[in-house]
Amino acid sequence: MLTVTRTPLRVSLFGGGTDYPEYFERAPGAVIGMAIDKYIIIAALDLIGCQEYNYRLSYSRLEHCNEVGQIEHPVVREVLKHFDIDRRLDISIISDLPAAGSGLGSSSAFTVGFLRTVYALRDQKPTKIELSKKAIEVEREILRENVGVQDQLHAAFGGINRFDFSGSAIRISPVQMSSAAVQQLNASMVLVHTGIARRATTTVANQIAVTRARAIDKELSELYRLVEECVTLLEEGSAGWIAQLGEMLSASWRIKRTLSRDVSNAVLDELFETIIASGAYGAKLCGAGGGGFFLALMPPERIPALAKRVAPLSVIPIAVDVDGSTLIYRQTR
């Protein structure tokens, strides 16, 4: 049997850093962001019996194993162990964009997508919040990763959402935008690749340390404040709202640069200034920082000029994904 899932990557607009338990267990946290139309596809095929291995994994590398415990991919290994999966599997993983160091929540999107795949193998249909919480459990409790809790939610739910965190409670509030506003947003958004791939582990570890020490509470509270301002802007859709949103992105990026010395560097600062000089309303680096992609908002007619100016770096138009993690194919026999 063949099972195929599709799970979106995400861009976080505002509130990043307040989605860590180290912060929201003592102060309210909130984020707003969206799933985007760039995906991780996972295909799992039951092996038929004549192969010399019990597990084959194809991603940036190729693995052949006979025991689950021999699998080197940590998420695949631990999820199969967690659910006591003993069937022989060929698992292929492909992604629209580079998975490592993108700042687009690819690690959590993969965890959500692989869980969706395993649930399908078990003939189970989890709710979106169940899927999100299980992904958070896998990453934070089983793998002990330094991750927040927004990426799993974006990947599972899709769409544009505000997520509020307080203690152990999570509240999901879909942003109520008009179709015209969504179309305007879709036409104005691009990702600009920095040419730098960097795992967020070091940057996030430093940020968590200063969060625990309450050294950046002022900055995090300002990022939290921007969440409500963004929701109002998106839902009202008044004249000039895209330009205002861009200015807010740039403001949040300047705040974020102060959270850790690993967030930015001279190369990234120069690229940001180039994006703004090309006519963008505003921009911010996605994810924890240090590399990956800038999200930029700009008049659609200026996007070709930006692409020419930053070449050979990639400029990639994006749009909102509304489905979240989805089972797109299930062969029943």
Automatic annotation (TrEMBL):
GO BP field: GDP-L-fucose salvage
Domain GHMP kinase N-terminal stretches: 76-159
Molecular function via GO: ATP binding; fucokinase activity
Domain GHMP kinase C-terminal residues, every copy: 242-308
Keyword Nucleotide-binding: yes
UniProt keyword annotations, A-Z: ATP-binding, Kinase, Nucleotide-binding, Transferase
Top-level division of the source organism's lineage: Bacteria
Similarity comment: family membership: Belongs to the GHMP kinase family.
Protein name from the UniProt record: D-glycero-alpha-D-manno-heptose-7-phosphate kinase
